[in-house]
Amino acid sequence: MANLEIEYNLKFTTASLGCFLRVPLTPKNLALANILAMMQSSATRAYPSVEMQSRSMSNLYDMSLDIVPEVFGNQIVMSYVANFIEPREVLNPDYTYEKVISTFFDIIKKPLFEKRLLEISKSRLNNIMERYYDLPGHLAMQHFLSNWYRNSPNFKDMMWGDENKIIDAELDEVRDFYRKLTHSPAICLGQARDADTLTDLVQPYLDWTGYSREFAVNQVSIPAIEDFHEDEDHLDNLQAHIIMGYGFNIDKSAILNQFGGLLLSNYLAGDEYSDLFKKIREELGAAYSVAADDYFNNSMFVISTAIDKSKLNQVNKIITNSVSKLQQGEIDLDLFKRAKQALIRRYLISQDDPGISLIQMLANGLRGRNMTFEKRINHVKRFTADDLVKFSQELFLNERYYLL
User: What local confidence, expressed as pLDDT, does residue 12 receive?
Assistant: First the structure.
């Protein structure tokens, strides 16, 4: 039986279908995955031009197809996700599940390996990358990750991969990467009103060997190695960017780490009432932005801020003191309550987002578990202030980076 799961969903007028193929994260794999995604998004053998491919989906009531490589810890997941109107909504005899599915797999399974398409795709990627790194915050995060994974180079590129490979990749390399994908662990997931019919229609297309392999990974999270590093770069920016990275032990409770990190991000920088927002932006008047992000798959908790350069040392002290106070058991119970409410509200809203629901199914497939929104909400409700203190005590400052 192929790795296939289509859930019943009567809440939405749209259905979704995603095929996900997994390969290990390396800079080369990520670069080739980005190139392949750009090529397949533009043209395929079935639809050998941008216009033809776009028209084929437009004729299916503007069906959307997103082809992107996504990084989950130590894995790259090549994601092909279609969203389309349920046929029952339009009552058009020419618009059926069969037509949608055949178009979907025509694009996935019939890539066009043509030199001109490769060069156009590489050029587009290079332009997107240049615009991406024009933003100092993005550049700062890339430098931060390069430092964090300085002894684990396979993990230092989480967005684009090896930039030189994007420039120099040959057609045979992309073709070989696609062949490797067809033998890699794969899973097909979806949500539809008529889940049984969609399952029966999709099943014959899943003839690649990867669909019969185990998709779950024993350990998808990348461990954080305690080895403090401090670095800075100078670009004469108007603002200073500070990124502080804390690591935590993946061998500890997964529930404590996952929900502790999510709640701490809300507690420190979730809204205008959060701890760092009040201290840095309102009281000190130093910050243009403040963020705290939990990277569960990287065993990493990151606090970043863009600030007035003259207040660099003060902001540094505020951030370290805020974390230190939590580690010593000093917690604002009102803020903790707000953090819990915000996270529960996010999960309640997410239940009505088919895209997020599909990502949850994918995450469960990768980890070999069944974490529903209801279970997530119950974990948050049971999470105590003492639990948040306990999680904060697991954190160790591992990197401080400045872009000035």
Answer: 84
362-373 confidence digits (pLDDT tens): 999 999 888 899
pLDDT at 1 over 70: no
Kindly report the pTM of this predicted structure.
0.92
Closest CA to 306 of 167, 136, 176: 136
CB 61, CB 84: distance < 8 Å: yes
Q: How many whole angstroms separate alpha carbon 26 and alpha carbon 300?
A: 19
Strand-pair partners of 15: 84
Question: Over 70: is that where the pLDDT of 290 sits?
Answer: yes
Mean pLDDT score across all residues of the chain: 92
Q: Give the C-alpha separation, 255 to 376, whole Å.
A: 10
Quickly state the pLDDT bin for 282 (edges 50, 70, 90).
low
Mean pLDDT of 287-307: 89
CA distance 301 to 398: 10
Q: What is the largest CA-CA distance in the chain?
A: 67
Q: How far apart are CA 72 and CA 296, in angstroms?
A: 9
Q: What per-residue confidence (pLDDT) applies to 287?
A: 60
